[in-house]
Amino acid sequence: MRNYECLFIANPNIEGDGMSSVVEKVTAYVKEAGAEVANIQHWGKRRLAYQIEKQQYGNYVLMYINGEAPKIVDLQRSFELDSTILAYLTIRLDEMPEFDKVFIPEDDGEEDRRGGRSRYEGSRGKYGSSAPTGPEGKAPVKDVVLEEDEEDDVEMDVDVDAD
């Protein structure tokens, strides 16, 4: 039997018990493929590097699997057909890491671990928050008088060859 590491990203709209049922469903896929789960780690909801199926976040789950190569292809086919799984990656390991037990840690509830202000808070663009404002919060408008341009007579010489 070969050892595999499988990371899959589930839809972020699945919360709590729903995520446990997704993990159980994926475990059933593994058993249907004739493989066995050595360890499962639920990493929680994290921001994606780029949008997948219009989602910016995803629930990450890491699984270690023992199985045969043709059976793993069946597992990947099941991932493709499951609408709750946004993406997955399965790689072969030379050696299985040591684990004490199979566990699913609790989500800490933090969606974004980065601190600081939000993206739109305190904009410092071209006008920023320090742009001059007139009455009713609008920027003052200067009166500009446009002068009419004189029409220029332009003569065009066009030579047409007659055959």
The rounded Rg comes to 30 Å
Q: Pairing-aware structural class of the strands and helices?
A: alpha+beta
Uncertain parts: none
**Beta-strand content bin:** 25-35%
User: CATH topology of the domain at 2-93, which one?
Assistant: Alpha-Beta Plaits
CATH architecture of the domain at 2-93: 2-Layer Sandwich
The string of secondary-structure elements, in order, is EHEEHE
The total count of helices amounts to 2
What coarse outline follows from CA principal-axis ratios?
elongated
What portion of residues is helical?
Answer: 10-25%
Q: Give me the count of strands.
A: 4
CATH top level label of the domain at 2-93: Alpha Beta
The main pleated sheet reads as:
4 strands, antiparallel
Strands ordered across the widest β-sheet: 2-3-1-4
Distance between the termini: 86 Å
What is the average of the pLDDT values?
Answer: 77
CATH superfamily of the domain at 2-93: Ribosomal protein S6/Translation elongation factor EF1B
Q: What oligomeric assembly is this protein in?
A: single chain
